[in-house]
Amino acid sequence: MATALTEADQGFLTRAIELSRHALEDEGKTPFGAIVVIDGAIVSEGTSSVVELSDPTAHAEVMALRHAGKKLGRHLFEDGVMYASSEPCPMCLVACYWARLPRIVFGATSHDVALNGFEDLQLYRELTYPADRRSLREDVAGGRLGEQAAEVLRSWGAALPETVVPKL
């Protein structure tokens, strides 16, 4: 469902779309752009750099978050907004959650992205399946190795200054 955007939102989204358009000029780039805005100012920009960096995680939104973190010296952006040329893929959406962004504004939908050959909708569907029905095999170690891995987590949590609140 489309939302009425403010004039500022429209300006920032226009910038993200302009970044995506530049990919048409750069061989090997895919057409995605994103910016992080804090207090009404662009803090960082990102373009899809997957091919250029040989990094499957170098999507525009992730790159914008990385640049914002480096510039601001922090990894949480509760005071920010992500503007993206297209609806974020599952990885980028979760990265925005990890960064605690309160809002994302985007142009093209995942449907538009799928119509142009990208797998975002397939991946969203895949994540709704139980682990045993997904195309990516997931093997849980369990036993001694599983316990060793869990012990590392417990040790980390026990060393924190505040009591860990389980997020189950």
Please characterize this protein's 3D structure.
- By secondary structure, the chain is of the alpha+beta class.
- About 40% of the residues lie in helices and about 15% in strands.
- Helix 4 links the parallel strand 3 and strand 4 (about 105-110).
- Helix 3 runs parallel beside helix 4 (about 90-100).
- The chain is globular.
- The relative contact order is 0.11.
- The mean pLDDT is about 95.
Q: Please estimate the helix content.
A: 40-55%
Mean pLDDT: 95
Number of strands: 4
| Share of residues in strands | 15-25%
Distance between the termini: 30 Å
Could you state the order of secondary-structure elements as H and E? HEEHHEHEHHH
Question: Can you lay out the helices and strands and say which pair or pack?
Answer:
Layout: H1 7-22, E1 33-38, E2 41-47, H2 50-53, H3 60-72, E3 80-86, H4 90-98, E4 103-108, H5 110-115, H6 120-126, H7 143-158
Parallel strand pairs: 3-4
Antiparallel strand pairs: 1-2, 1-3
